[in-house]
Structure formats: structure tokens, C-alpha cells
Amino acid sequence: PTTITSSGDFGTLVPGTDYYVLAFGYADGAAATELTKHKFTTDPEGDPTANTFAFDISGVTARSASIQVEPSDKSVRYIWDIVTDAEYKKYGGNAEGIRSYLADYIKGQIDDFFTTPEEVVSVIGVRGDQWFDYEQLKPATTYYVWAACVDAAGNATATPAVSPAFTTEAAVVSTATATVEFEKYYNGSELYAIDDVTYKNYNNKAYLPAKVLHSADAVKWYTLYTGTDVGDTELYTDDLLIQYLVTQGTPDGEERRYGLTWNAKAYILAVAQDPEGHYGPVFRKSITPSLSGVSPISDLGFVTADAGTQSTPVMLRAVTPAAPLKRTAHVVR
Predict the structure, then answer these.
(1) Could you tell me which of 91, 181, 202, 223 has the fewest CB atoms within 10 Å of its CB?
(2) Which tens digit of pLDDT belongs to each residue from 4-16?
(3) pLDDT in tens, 169-225
């Protein structure tokens, strides 16, 4: 018989844990040999108190930064993120203060899906070198990177480490612009009566087709619509709305199709980014559709309109300046 040798990297395994390697021959769509298994045990986790962290901070702009965290012992489990200078000082402005911050950080991530500290740690606890590109930072703000070795319940098992401070650049308002042009809206139920498949998302709603216009210096743009009243520019600043637009908005493209709730104010938002990564002013425009204001679907130029892809509304909330940032595990690359 022919012997075939293969190998594979199983990634980051849990220290001090028993594993089995399983193998069997396969031919003509079925197992051709008996199952062979080999048990092995990973080395125990290293001493967290002997571990050190190295931080690499690069690509800092007004709203972004690339962060790399390197533990000296790749087997230790730890949690890491960034914290604003204001929040850091609130907890004492030292590494020991991060112990208290860590406890609040974990509590802040308990929800209906992860109901205990252990479940949170199982998701956000990591081992080995880690990288993340932050894209929602506040301009002209000082931050620190922190890392803390933890047990399964999230208790710090060694003194946390804190990086030197880094400060984001001041925001530069770009000349790049994006706007959403709309005027007429239609009775979505009439369209649904014509085609209940194409227009299923517009039944009992106002159907609003719109066009996205952008300046020549815009390399990327985002749009979003929300039922939240964002007319208060002091509460919903451009900086805040840019965060929502970039993370939850619809990127690029030149056409939008909205299904709006009757007699409820909706805001359409847009922003553009220039080649240097700076954002222009946020476009915001409200509309309150009513049945008395609909236009006949014959104005669309054909019997059935082009439904396109419906944009999804986003509910926004005001974010307080002192709110800690949370880098959840599902977005770590």
C-alpha cells in the first residue's frame, strides 16, 4: 500500500487540553480503511505573572489606528482593547486601575446572548498575537491600549499592561460630499398588488426611490436612513453620525429604494470620504410620508417600478463622550 504523509496547522489550541487526531482512508466516495486516532495533550498554560506585552500602534489618523498586541508567552489567555485618556484617568490612570475597568468592561458586554462573565470571556478572551484596525475613533483624542491576562471568569491573573499614549489627529472636514436626492414617493401597497414578490417589502409602506449624488473628489460614500430624529446637530453631531454611517450604512452605489412608515418622520443621511481618508459634512434630510402626498405610480414611467434592494432603517442612540469603546471578538481579524 502507498503511504501518504500530510500535515496541518491546527491554530491556537487550548493549553493543558487533551486532543485527538483522527484519520482514515477515503476512496470512491466512502471510507476505505479503519479509523485511526492519536491522542496528544497540549502544554499547560504559562505563568501569566511572567508574561509581558508589546504594543505596536501605527496608521493613526483622525478616526483610525492599527493596533498589534504581542504577548511574550503565546499560551496565556488575555483580553485587550483601547481606552480614552478620560476613561483611563477615571479609573486611576494606572495599570492597577485597569483591573477595575476590566470588571466593568466585561459586565458591559453581558447581554441576552452572553449572560455570564464566563461566556463573555469565552468569546473575547484571546491567545497569541492579535491585530485590529480601529475605524471609529474620536478625532483629537488620546487613547491607551491595555491588555490583561485573565482566568475563565475574567479576573485579572497578573498586573495589566498599558501602552504609551497615542493621540488621533484633529478632524479635517473634506470638500468631498454625498447627497441623496428624492422628491416623490408612492403607495407601496399599490405596487405590492401588482407584484407581491418584487414589492413584498413595500406593502403598507411608502415607496421612496432616491439617487445618490457625490462630488468628483469622493472615493467612497455611505448612506443610511433612520426613524431616529437626528435634527439636533448638537446631540447628533457629524462626528457621531459618521460613525453610524461607516459602520451601519450602505456603501457606494447611486440608487436607493426606501420603504418608509406612513406618517412617521425619517431621516436620510449621507457622507463622502476623500482619497486622504477625510470625511466631508454629513447630509441629513427628513421626510414624513403620508397617503395624501403620494404620487401616482404611472409617474414612474412604467406599470411596475424597479424595486431594487430595500435599504434597512437603523435606530440610532446618542453616545456619551465617556462611553468606553468595546472591541467585540467577532470583528477581530
Answers:
(1) 181
(2) 777 777 767 888 8
(3) 998 999 999 999 999 999 999 999 888 888 899 999 999 999 999 999 999 999 999
Cell numbers standing for residue 309: 434592494
What is the 3 state secondary structure string of 227-294? CCCCCCCCCCCHHHHHHHHHHHCEECCCEEEEEECCCCCEEEEEEEECCCCCECCCEEEEECCCHHHC
Nearest Cα to 124, choosing from 167, 71, 81? Answer: 81
Mutual angle of helices 97-107 and 117-124, in 10-degree steps: 100
- In angstroms, how far apart are the furthest CA atoms of the chain? 81
* Residue 103: exposure state from Cβ atoms within 10 A (0-12, 13-18, ≥19): middle
Three-state DSSP class for residue 87: helix
Coil vs helix vs strand at 206? strand
**pTM, rounded to two decimals:** 0.69
